[in-house]
Task: structure prediction
Amino acid sequence: MPLKSSLRSLVYQSEKTYQRLRFSSLSAPREGWQSLLGISFPKSGTHLLDQILLGFSKVAPFSRRLHSFYAEYEGESGRKRSPAQALAWLDSLRPGDIASAHLFAREEVTKRVCSSAFIPYFIFRDPRDVAVSHVFYVTDMERRHVHHDYYQSLPDFDARLRVSILGRPEADIEFPNIADRFAPYLGWLDQPCVLKVHFEDLIHDRAGTLDRIIDHLLDRAPIPAPRQLILEALESSINPKRSPTFRSGKTGEWKKYFTEEHKKIFKDAAGDLLIRLGYEKDNNW
Result:
């Protein structure tokens, strides 16, 4: 085993042992401590949800899972991972781990996630803001991204935003339009075991949304700590500066960047998605 991997494994095992000793007086749930799993659509608050879930480590024997993030596509190559890889990653998680993933809602995956082994959350965001955020991320923040050079070659922000909405159907690397990119995640909306979290609610109604996040955990893993203490633990874990891809944390920014052409192509490509996610009632926006 390479030295770096050995050190990571040692740190992980040490943290697990420390947390078990720290909370040794706590009775485990009937089915044992679950893994906390934050599922997200890309550019929808992945790091924010991850930080919040890590807050539970202050009141119960949860701890970060090293190599805790999984994505369906490799960022540098754009290669799509297989369903077997997603299942293998889920199987690698241990009781009490905290992990996050861009994870498709395939039947076999939802069955695994909705078992007694996990307490799952799914965060998503207005897809129009996702498209804007994607442009900044690929162009300015992640130079190793498979589409970085292509975005850099485009003449301006408007052209890049058009690609983030419509994808690159002509490219050898799979990158469909934003509705088709979201489609594999839609199944999470239909799973009662998964708490659905709008990114916008964490910005505009943080206290109420954190209450929902706490309730979702307490329904499965009773923690005797006072509720106010749990709420403060989650609040204090939120630190946007620790997010490597955090840019503004604002909502509705798409209104500053969408031209009439962007609105038209978005409605054609993903108008129904906005309605399904509850961001619009119709296409008259």
